[in-house]
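Lab notebook, bench 4. Still working through the backlog of constructs that have no structural model yet. Next entry is a single chain of 418 residues. Request: give me the structure tokens for it.
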Amino acid sequence: MFALVDCNNFYASCERVFNPALRGQPVVVLSNNDGCVIARSNEAKALGVPMGAPAFEYKELFEKQRIHVFSSNYALYGDMSLRVMHLLSEFSPDVEIYSIDEAFLKFEGFRHFDLQEQGNLMRQKVTRSTGIPISVGIAPTKALAKVANRIAKKFPDRTGSVYVMDDAEKRAKGLKWLAIEDVWGIGSQHAKRLRAQNVCTAYDFTLLPDAWVRKHMAVTGLRLKHELEGKHTLDLETPTAKKAIATTRSFEKMYTTLDQLRERVATFAATCSEKLRRQQSCCNALLVFVHSNGFRKDLPQYNRNIVLKTAYPTNSGIDLIRYATIGLQAIFKDGFHYKKAGVIVMDITPEDIRQLSLFDDAHPKHRALMQAMDNINRASGHAAVRYACQDSRTWKMNQERLSPRYTTRLADIITVHA
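Model written out:
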């Protein structure tokens, strides 16, 4: 049996943990630079705030309905997620962290356990220890666990936010209730094609011939069909190193000069190098891109990218900044208003398997320097030590509604007056 554990309205719930006055109040969390809505409490959903709503367009509604608005506090959310996942690992040795707020657990050898009780214990422990409410769906396959979790979240009064789909009757009932668009792994194009075949629910999908599913949805669709039929075909996935790492941002304002863009691109390259070192990898190529503001039709448009091969596998911030700067200079053009840029490192290989040639000039001191920088920044805070080409003033994101980093910054820790 598999369990899917999902944190309810995770970002909004994290804000409520340290500010109990927000309980029962509408809460929304905004994306980078306070651009659009990326998380909503149930109360905010009921007031008609859609996912992805541009913050400036809904400013009047926020004020009129007294909706509490927060900037993304990723340091807080990431730390709370780690705490939740650590608690879940106490219930099963087999855990797949699916996203920041979701995890699959495999209950192998739990034949004599009451899984309903296990789900209730998980929910009680996580909520009591972190303050984060969760929903738990348990079923014979990962796809059915997704369905069970959806039922647990949709009908908390009936299920207690824990639903065990352990027989054919429950499976059929759940699949007949779930619309085809809401099935895990069914995208909008597949849903449209299936609707044309009068497939409106997950149950209808399981009645299709295997040959038709394989022909139109490939082997991935066929595996999903078998999963929904209760046939175990998908197992837990083990974490793997990323094959490409991207750092991209939309700017809080439009930039017109090379110097402005150079600082941003250098910072993106430095961030990519940190991520590479974190997973003990090196890259052999990187892509640099710039975009003008596509929403400003009154301005000339320009989008360009360039790929550069590195001379040797590297995760040095010095190397990557140098290559990224060369790439930016090659694609930059005067006369345009730039709104977005980014760096993507590719062709990633393990750090301990680096093939160098006789003429490669990889500097041996870079590795020790990068390690020292990482150690200092880990102990003293992000960007405590940075490269000279980075300007901390221009790099700061627009976060006008940022809550304190209660669990990751000593200065923001809660003060209790007794």
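Notes after review: Residues 217 and 240 are 26 Å apart (CA to CA). The chain is about 40% helix and 20% strand. Flag for follow-up if needed.
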